């Protein structure tokens, strides 16, 4: 899979230079302080009256002007595709550079001959371009072919992606055993997402024999690599295991880890655990905070829970306008609650007007389309 290339912006380079200047200043001050302290013991040993110490001139570090006259940052697209020097040959990194800048047709032209010559990185990039339809007509079957070649040469990212295609039957016939085999290849290379995906066949008994202990082992390895999906799944396995492997404390711990990494379903579940005091100390105020994080992230179940919090004054001060507002958004997104319906029906028009304003405020972003299908890439 293509590796993202990062560049330091002008502001970040400026920050590093200023940080270095400040570090030098602190270092100078520290040395001077040590020199001053070293004279103290001698004064005590002689028991002589202290004499006025001469003032020490502390050198002030010179400020370096790191600004530029033109602070306009050019778009990586406007900067144009990567240019080769005379006699320089394109390599896979050159193709990736064009890909990262959004010049997909150029990336395709650079990667094709390299991929045909057996360059696994270029083959992986060809898979990405064909799968997403970037610079070429979308063709997931051809994407699978390129991923297969790259995986055969040891590219873990391609093996991971090919496993997903076999799992979903995209571009290839659905084959959960082959999917698990490719996940295994990527997992052996340390890919956290592959470890998570390999655990699922063991949980379900499809593509691998059912083995809840093995699934837990793989989930733990992926969770320790900070994969939020694995952390959430591991927490659920401790909370909902069917073979006596339950541990509410461990379940709450891993659900909480996933929640802190921004996993909205984990945020809802952790809020419920906090509210109920299951596997963790009960704290209704903190539970409300988690519901709000997930609700503002677009999770309708969290919106419904937050509406209840406001309606019943559990974890937040009772606020019927806020309760009705979140209930209206959640209901629009398909989560109904008859108890909240009755509460909303009993509210006066002034409160409902506030509720509608809140709903409109959040629904403008929470219910907006995630992408513009008419927008073209460069």
From TrEMBL:
InterPro entries to which the protein is assigned, alphabetical: Sel1-like (IPR006597), Sel1_AlgK (IPR050767), TPR-like_helical_dom_sf (IPR011990)
A Pfam family of this chain: Sel1
Keyword Signal: yes
Keywords tagged on the record: Signal
N-terminal signal peptide: 1-33
The protein, known as: Sel1 repeat family protein
Lineage: Bacteria, Pseudomonadati, Pseudomonadota, Alphaproteobacteria, Hyphomicrobiales
């Amino acid at each position: 899979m293509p590796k993202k290339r990062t560049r330091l912006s002008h502001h970040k380079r400026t920050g590093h230079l200023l940080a270095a200047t400040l570090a030098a200043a602190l270092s100078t001050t520290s040395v001077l302080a040590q020199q001053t302290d070293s004279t103290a013991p001698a004064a005590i040993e002689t028991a002589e009256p202290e004499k006025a110490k001469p003032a020490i001139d502390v050198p002030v570090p010179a400020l370096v002007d790191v600004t530029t006259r033109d602070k306009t940052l050019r778009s990586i697209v406007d900067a144009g595709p990567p240019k080769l020097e005379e006699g320089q040959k394109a390599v896979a990194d050159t193709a990736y550079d064009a890909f990262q800048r959004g010049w997909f047709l150029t990336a395709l032209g650079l990667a094709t001959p390299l991929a045909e010559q057996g360059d696994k990185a270029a083959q992986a990039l060809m898979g990405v371009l064909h799968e997403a339809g970037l610079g070429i007509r979308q063709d997931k079957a051809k994407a699978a072919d390129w991923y297969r070649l790259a995986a055969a040469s040891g590219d873990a990212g391609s093996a991971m992606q090919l496993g997903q295609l076999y799992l979903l039957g995209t571009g290839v016939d659905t084959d959960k055993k082959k999917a698990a085999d490719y996940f295994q290849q990527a997992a052996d290379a340390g890919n956290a997402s592959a470890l998570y995906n390999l655990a699922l066949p063991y949980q379900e008994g499809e593509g691998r024999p059912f083995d809840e202990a093995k699934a837990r082992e793989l989930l733990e390895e992926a969770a320790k690599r900070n994969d939020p999906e694995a952390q959430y799944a591991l927490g659920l396995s401790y909370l909902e295991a069917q073979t006596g492997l339950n541990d509410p404390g461990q379940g709450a711990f891993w659900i909480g880890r996933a929640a802190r990494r921004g996993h909205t379903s984990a945020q809802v579940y952790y809020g419920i655990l906090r509210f109920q005091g299951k596997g963790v100390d009960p704290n209704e105020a903190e539970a409300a905070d988690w519901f709000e994080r997930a609700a503002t992230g677009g999770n309708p179940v969290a919106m419904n829970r937050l509406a209840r919090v406001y309606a019943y004054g559990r974890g937040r001060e009772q606020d019927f306008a806020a309760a009705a507002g979140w209930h209206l958004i959640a209901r629009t997104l398909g989560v109904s609650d008859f108890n909240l319906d009755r509460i909303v029906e009993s509210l006066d028009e002034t409160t409902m007007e506030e509720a509608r304003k809140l709903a409109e405020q959040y629904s403008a972003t929470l219910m907006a389309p995630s992408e513009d299908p008419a927008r073209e890439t460069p």
